């Protein structure tokens, strides 16, 4: 696993062994960042269920101004910390080793993000819980975007009733990226 573009291009990143995380492949990551590239430069980026931190670090390498990583698992958080140190992004990042919903409450009123990315464990409806929490939150800027990596069978039929709309969707063999934003009221 590595950073694929930007100022830290080709730097290898650590990942935690085992099946507790699903590192995004280079090809999928390339497609993801091609879809977001116009919004990355100078943005504040929030990486939820951050795993190894590779998505937030890729955003930083491509010109994001600041990234916050939230990861509950202690081994994964230690891996993120190592990757942040190795890529020399200590001053432009923050790592929070807590449950995502609890951490979002802590961040409220202190940060505003242009992009919120989440790759929660599949088939636990955690993306819905996070979207409910973000619905009336000030964490997402007015014109901000939420990107969700999810399994192909994840139900997003509730987005409309929560006040979100799909901007675009990329479908891969085993998963999808859904780009959503708040509806203009």
Characterization of this structure:
This protein is of the alpha/beta class. The protein has one domain: Rossmann fold (3-Layer(aba) Sandwich). Helix content is 31%, strand content 26%. It contains 6 helices and 7 strands; from the N terminus they run αβαβαβαβαβαββ. A 7-stranded mixed sheet has the order 3-2-1-4-5-7-6. The chain is globular and about 40 Å long. The termini are far apart.
Tell me the distance between the termini: 41 Å
Largest sheet: 7 strands, mixed
Number of separate domains: 1
| Strand percent estimate | 25-35%
Taking all residues together, what is the mean pLDDT? 93
CATH overall fold name: Rossmann fold
The secondary-structure class comes to alpha/beta
CATH class: Alpha Beta
**CATH arch. level architecture:** 3-Layer(aba) Sandwich
Biggest β-sheet: strands ordered side by side in the sheet = 3-2-1-4-5-7-6
The beta-strand count equals 7
How are helices and strands ordered from N to C? HEHEHEHEHEHEE
Helix content: 25-40%
Poorly predicted runs are none
**Alpha plus pi helix count:** 6
Q: What is the gyration radius calculated from CA atoms?
A: 15 Å
Shape summary = globular
CATH H-level superfamily: Vaccinia Virus protein VP39
Pfam families: Cons_hypoth95 (PF03602)
Keywords: Methyltransferase, Transferase
Protein name: 16S rRNA (Guanine(966)-N(2))-methyltransferase RsmD
Organism: Agathobacter ruminis
């Amino acid at each position: 696993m590595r950073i694929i573009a930007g100022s830290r291009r080709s730097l290898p990143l650590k990942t935690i062994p085992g099946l507790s995380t699903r590192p995004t492949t280079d090809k999928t990551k390339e497609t993801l960042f091609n879809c977001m590239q116009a919004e990355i430069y100078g943005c504040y980026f929030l990486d939820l269920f951050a795993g190894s931190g590779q998505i937030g670090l890729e955003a930083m390498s491509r010109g994001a101004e600041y990234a916050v990583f939230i990861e509950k698992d202690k081994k994964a958080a230690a891996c993120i910390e190592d990757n942040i140190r190795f890529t020399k992004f200590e001053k432009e990042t923050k790592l929070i080793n807590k449950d995502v919903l609890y951490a979002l409450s802590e961040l409220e009123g202190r940060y505003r993000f242009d992009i919120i990315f989440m790759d929660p464990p599949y088939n636990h409806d955690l993306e819905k819980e996070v979207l409910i929490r973000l619905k009336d939150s000030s964490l997402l800027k007015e014109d901000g975007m939420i990107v969700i990596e999810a399994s192909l069978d994840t139900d997003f039929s509730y987005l409309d009733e929560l006040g979100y709309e799909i901007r675009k969707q990329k479908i891969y063999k085993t998963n999808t990226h859904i780009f959503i934003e708040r509806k203009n009221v």
